[in-house]
Amino acid sequence: MGMIIDVERLSRRFGQSTAVDELTLTAGAGEVVGLLGPNGAGKTTTIRMLATLLPPSSGTARVCGFDVVRAAGDVRLRIGYVMQQVSPMGYYMLTGREKTEIEAALYHVPRKRVKARAAEVLELVGLSAHADRLVQAYSGGMQKRLELACGLLHRPELLILDEPTLGLDVQSRHHVWDHIRQLCQEGMTVLLATNYMDEADRLCDRLTIIDHGREVVSGTPAELKAAIGADSLDEVFLRHTGHALREEAA
Ligand SMILES: Nc1ncnc2c1ncn2[C@@H]1O[C@H](COP(=O)(O)OP(=O)(O)OP(=O)(O)O)[C@@H](O)[C@H]1O
């Protein structure tokens, strides 16, 4: 069975600084693989390389069997990417359904299928009842779920989620997690970047902890905790790096 993500010694430099440093990462079909690390650890840079938006400085990355540099078009057809920063401004005067249908057309869903597919993905993320409300009336959690729905429109083999619950309240986070878990049950492969250890713990089959662009340690959440007798992934991070995963806000 081919790997959905197969990354070998991937690096990205910006001038003198190295954002991603010889990272190796794999994901098999149906796995939820996490990248856990603090702000600036290199998660988004890694994701942008896998999504073909940023060329690597060195190393190789294959997604769904295609090289992200030489076969970027083949990769793009097979991935959904839900970005960290969502700017809903351009969509404020649209309903959730209208936004989803526009994105469906952009994602090359055949015209005859657009309405049905939009309704399906809205149902998947629990937004059917709110589909005809304006996006500007959505809560933060609903907007995130709408982004998730749009990432699913073209039935990607790999869904890439960058901080899917950043800035959400506890209840909304649990709601988003429920929907991500449901997608996994349907066999989707997910790459999740987060700096929330509870999110990584709850959702990931395997994760790689990164710091300063480099792998610190990787394994299942249970393995990582058991190896050092830690109760939480925060503690795992602290023990391996000597500093906290999340700096306290000043
Ligand atoms: N276009 C760029 N030019 C220069 N430096 C960059 C660029 N993009 C990212 N970096 C640097 O690379 C490092 C990794 O950033 P990256 O955004 O990948 O981290 P991250 O783990 O995703 O953090 P966050 O959780 O804040 O998104 C940072 O030091 C950042 O300043």
TrEMBL record:
Keywords: Antibiotic resistance, ATP-binding, Nucleotide-binding, Transport
GO cellular component: plasma membrane
Residues passing through the membrane, by range: none
SMART domains in UniProt: AAA (SM00382)
Subcellular location: Cell membrane
UniProt keyword Lyase, yes or no: no
Main location: membrane
Membrane topology: Peripheral membrane protein
GO molecular function: ATP binding; ATP hydrolysis activity
GO biological process entries: response to antibiotic
UniProt keyword annotation of ATP-binding present: yes
Domain ABC transporter: 5-237
Gene3D superfamilies with a match to the protein in the record: P-loop containing nucleotide triphosphate hydrolases
Family the UniProt entry places it in: Belongs to the ABC transporter superfamily.
Alphabetized PANTHER family for the sequence: ABC TRANSPORTER ATP-BINDING PROTEIN, ABC TRANSPORTER ATP-BINDING PROTEIN NATA
UniProt name for this protein: ABC-2 type transport system ATP-binding protein
